[in-house]
Specification:
heterotrimer, A mainly alpha (about 300), B mainly alpha (about 300), C alpha/beta (about 400), A: about 300 residues, two-stranded antiparallel ribbon, about 0% strand, B: 11 helices, 4 strands
Chain lengths: ~300, ~300, ~400
């Protein structure tokens, strides 16, 4: 327990000084995607439900945040909350439909429903279609902290991430989280023990959707616009990759996965162009065939072996 | 000029025809997916990318080796089938014992690789592939303008789909296939080489996609993105039809293509989402799909 | 438990990696050093517009830099960077932001795709640099979304619509149907063309919108056909225009109706061929075969790029050259000073004679109404145009009196 606290403490200290060392916008991007991946992991790693359309929550929240802040004049905090709630509501609708089937069908349904929303966004005038919702003002947090400054915004984003991560951590280690794990391990047995499995699944879905939405809304604030890319199925695939690479079912895996993939994309995009997609695909293939536990999972197993062999 | 429901009849029939063409592609692709899923229990996300590969092989064949359309109709699906067999032997076979979702993830990764490679080589805009001489032009039927090539597409797809149905339902090979799907161990015990059947099934399923790709090449732009735009709609078609029967997949595919075409006439804004809306409704009313059997 | 610690430490390790990378790319502070001028070409390198801009724009910019160094021998260094925005406003905007924040880029050019241009224009204003946009079309760049840090250099949707539309209506083609690319550029072009049509007494029978880089135009063209309009106007560009024209021919639309590509360039004619496009009329901003000066420059460009330049390529060369001259004249690369100089000079090179940059950021120069030659009339490859009319700068672009730009005093 102590080691865990120390570990998190070191990381937090590092994150607090990061804007002095690293381009803040890049770190904020990593934090947003890390949150997105952690939210996704709640569903796939801990409940065993592979949603292949999770980008729809990122995108919906992005548009809601952008529109409410830019057009309705919401202050940033309210915009984020409104967006997260909107994503959670959408999560309730999509989840209710998708949970009727399981396994692969569940994945296909989430993908198809997300695609439907994508086309809706493409045509709806308020999203700006292909042009995107541009020029979203960052506003003033609590009325006085000017978020146009990258460093101010960075600490706000970090705070959001820490809060959401703590929430996920608590959820996983709560009785609710235990039931989710039970559903993942053996759904039939969970049902026979009397749990209303559908209700738990739906709740997990809504929670995951809302937190993914929070990530999307924060991202809109950082980059000052929301576009179709956020809701595109490629982004859904990306978050699956981040979680798989980092380690499904581990607490910190998605963060590692997100940091790795975002950094990789950032470095390679200019140098190799379209081949970035090939590299992503190759990582997918390698992970599925040989590296299923992901970075954190494999390292954890290695650590146990080393410790155990002493 | 006569009108039907307030739309000029030429436009109506034209869209209906285009809807049938799209429906043919949906049918062929969902058929391939259903066959693969039946045997391997894997949802082949790479199906769209392999459809694109078929079109690409046809284009490359024409532009690098001078291989014409008719030869491509035979060679490109064979090529895609070979790629499929390679995928199955080298990667997919290790996943059968695992959760089905890993198969989906692996094929998704493969789709990204294929798409990325072709994108890098050929960019994103379409590559032109001309309609073969025999099919240039159109029949002017008075009430509609029927491009010859698209008529051929509908015909060829129907023939291939029905041939597939015939082989699977009415021949001995098909019987072996169905047995291997129901109970692999018992079928193996009877001396039938089940892994070989599996390999050939995957190869055949993707060859169907490749064939669809060659058919598509003259009609649409040959583009590295052509598969990814299509595959998600095909997934929805598969959910609507259920994967229980071959005929069911064919009928659902064609039907949804027609519905999409009609939507374009009366309410174009919804045409890209109508399939998904139908899927949502089917899920509420009949979760196993129209022709599906609850597994 | 241990896994989480492991995860935390791995996370720290990855963060350090990211730090190392980012440190490597952290540039000198935002206030520019006088010793280095960095120009960024932000374009579509592999998509539907890659032939209009793309690698050609990079080549043109590099030519301008090389020529400037040879003639002016400046004391400061000049560097060129380029990136592919993939026709996505977020990719373009993020790249511009990153260039300004971490790489000390002073000026961005090309920026084709109006959606990207509008986003980059905002970032450029925020970071106080310069955008000399040689690629995009939307008139919004000099109207509602005008900016003191943005110059719209080569062409815009007003100029495009102005040329062919009135001529065609006078010839009796008075009913129109639009096939529009569904984003900022298409909307802008459709709107400007609609204004001209109405002003000349024409009628619009309807229109349909298609997604950028659509794979199949048959459905849209069917609708155009059933409208029975005399003219089907293509409010799209690049690969979309090429595919629309090809599909129109395939469906026999061209037998009874005229097809007008409102944004067509010599690149598109070369791709489709004069057989299918003969007689088409549209506004162009540059023609390689116009005079001795354009021929000389274009042959040099052809030697490097293997294709004749589009107006975007020629404009990028001119823009970069003009910018570098302005930096030399003012002795700084600080945006406001350079912009002030830009708006007070006259541009005379192979691209523009007597070109001027107005208060709203619009660069005005002569445009050309061209008609595609019949295949028999074409004497050599790329010899595609009759120049029907030179539209003088004062007429080609939207007059300042109609401007919706807040920077323009009325």
């Amino acid at each position: 327990m102590n080691r865990q606290v120390i570990g998190y403490g070191i990381l937090l200290a590092f994150m607090l000084v990061a804007p002095l060392l690293v381009y803040p916008v890049l770190v904020m991007k990593i934090l947003c995607f890390a949150l997105f991946a952690c939210a996704f992991n709640l569903l796939v790693g801990f409940t065993g439900l592979l949603s292949f359309g999770h980008a729809v929550f990122l995108g919906t929240a992005g548009y809601v945040a952008g529109h409410s802040i830019k057009v309705w004049g919401f202050p940033p905090e309210l915009g984020l909350i409104a967006a997260a709630l909107a994503a959670a509501a959408l999560g309730w609708v999509i989840g209710s439909l998708a949970i009727r089937r399981s396994g692969i069908y569940f994945a296909m349904i989430t993908l198809a429903l997300a695609q439907m929303m994508y086309f809706f966004f493409l045509q709806a005038p308020f999203t700006g279609g292909e042009d995107g919702l541009q020029d979203v003002p960052r506003g003033k947090l609590l009325g006085f902290i000017d978020l146009a400054d990258d460093v101010n915004l960075y600490y706000f984003v970090l705070a959001i991430f820490v809060f959401a991560f703590w929430l996920i951590h608590r959820t996983i280690h709560s009785p609710f989280g235990q039931v989710l794990k039970a559903i993942r391990e053996n759904e039939a047995r969970a049902i026979s023990l009397g749990y209303d499995v559908a209700k738990y699944k739906l709740l997990a879905f809504v929670l995951s959707a809302g937190l993914a939405g929070l990530a999307g809304a924060t991202k809109t604030l950082v980059f000052r616009f929301a576009t179709l890319t956020d809701a595109h199925w490629h982004t859904s695939g990306e978050v699956v990759l981040m979680t798989l690479l980092g380690g499904m079912g581990t607490v910190f895996g998605p963060v590692v996965g997100a940091a790795t993939i975002v950094t990789l994309q950032n470095e390679l995009a200019d140098k190799v162009g379209s081949l970035v997609t090939v590299i992503m695909g190759a990582i997918f293939v390698v992970c599925v065939l040989a590296f299923r536990r992901g970075i954190v999972g494999e390292l954890g197993a290695l650590y146990k072996r080393v410790i155990g062999s002493r | 000029m006569s009108e039907i429901f307030g739309i000029p009849i030429q436009a109506f029939m034209g869209q209906l025809m285009l809807g049938l063409v799209n429906g043919s592609f949906y049918a062929m692709l969902s058929l391939g997916l259903a066959v693969i899923f039946g045997m391997l229990n894997i949802i082949n996300f790479a199906h769209g990318a392999l459809y694109m590969a078929g079109a690409m092989l046809a284009w490359m064949g024409l532009n690098y080796f001078g291989i014409g359309y008719w030869w491509s109709l035979l060679l490109a699906p064979l090529g895609v089938g070979v790629i499929g067999i390679f995928i199955e032997r080298s990667m997919l076979q290790w996943l059968y014992k695992l959760d089905h979702l890993y198969g989906l993830l692996l094929t998704f990764g493969l789709a990204l690789i294929l798409e990325g490679l072709f994108r890098d080589l050929y960019g994103v805009s379409g590559l032109p592939y001309s309609i073969p001489e025999e099919f240039a032009g159109a029949y002017n039927l008075g009430f509609m303008f029927l491009p010859k090539y698209r008529a051929w597409v509908i015909l060829a797809s129907l023939v291939v789909c029905l041939a597939t149905w015939f082989v699977i339902e009415k021949t001995r090979l098909g019987a072996y296939l169905r047995a291997a799907t129901e109970n692999p161990k018992l079928t193996q015990a009877f001396g039938i080489n089940v892994p070989l059947m599996v390999m050939l099934t995957y190869g055949f399923g993707v060859a169907l996609a490749g064939f669809a790709g060659v058919l598509a090449a003259p009609a649409m732009q040959v583009s590295p993105l052509m598969g990814s735009n299509l595959i998600i709609v095909v997934f929805a078609v598969v959910v609507i039809g259920g994967m229980g029967s071959i005929l069911g997949s064919i009928v659902t595919g064609l039907g949804l293509g027609v519905i999409e075409g009609l939507t374009k006439v009366f309410y174009p804004e919804a045409s890209s989402t109508v399939v998904f809306i139908i899927m949502a409704i089917v899920l509420l009313v009949r979760p196993a799909g129209l022709f599906g059997r609850e597994k | 438990m241990k896994r989480n610690l492991m995860g935390a430490l791995v996370g720290a390790a990855v963060m350090s990696l990211a730090t190392g990378q980012a440190l490597a790319q952290k540039a000198p502070a935002a206030k520019v050093s006088g010793d280095m001028v960095k120009i960024g070409v932000l374009t579509d390198m592999s998509g539907v517009y890659s032939d209009l801009g793309g690698q050609g724009s990079v080549t043109a910019a590099q030519m301008a830099i090389d020529d400037f160094k040879a003639q002016a021998k400046p004391s400061w260094k000049i560097e060129l960077v380029y990136a592919d925005h993939q026709n996505k406003a977020d990719v373009g905007s993020n790249k511009a932001r990153e260039w300004y924040d971490t790489q000390g880029v002073d000026m961005i050019t090309d920026a084709l795709n109006s959606g990207v241009a509008l986003a980059v224009s905002k970032v450029t204003l925020e970071k106080k640099r310069l955008l000399i946009d040689t690629g995009a079309a939307s008139t919004r760049l000099t109207n509602e979304d005008c900016s003191p840090n943005t110059v719209h250099y080569v062409y815009d949707t007003y100029a495009l619509a102005n040329g062919p539309v009135s001529v065609m209506i006078k010839q009796g083609n008075d009913t129109w149907y639009f096939l529009t690319a569904d984003y900022a550029f298409g909307h802008s072009l459709e709107k400007d063309a609609t204004d001209v049509i109405k002003a000349n007494g024409g009628k619009i029978l309807g229109g349909v919108r298609h997604p950028l880089n659509a794979s199949d135009f048959s459905s849209f063209l069917l609708q155009a056909q059933s409208s029975k309009a005399k003219v089907v106007a293509l409010a799209n560009a690049g690969g979309d225009t090429i595919n629309s024209i090809k599909a129109a021919n395939e469906f026999g639309l061209t037998r009874n109706q005229s097809v007008v590509g409102l944004l067509t360039t010599i690149i598109d004619i070369h791709a489709v061929g004069p057989q299918a496009t003969q007689g088409m009329m549209f506004t162009e901003g540059f023609y390689w075969n116009l005079n001795a000066e354009t021929r000389e420059w274009s042959r040099r460009f052809f030697g490097k790029h293997k294709k004749m330049p589009s107006m975007l390529h020629a404009g990028t060369y001119s823009a970069v050259m003009t910018y570098l001259k302005a930096v030399q004249a003012t002795g700084t690369d600080e945006a406001d000073a350079v912009m002030k100089h830009l708006k007070s000079t006259t541009i005379n090179d192979m691209f523009a004679k007597g070109g001027k940059i107005r208060a709203d950021g619009r660069m005005i120069h002569d445009m050309y109404l061209v008609e595609v030659k019949k295949p028999a009339e074409s004497k050599e490859p790329w010899d595609y145009y009759h120049i029907r009319k030179v539209i003088p700068a004062s007429e080609a672009f939207q007059p300042m009196s109609l401007s919706r730009c807040p920077l323009v005093k009325k």
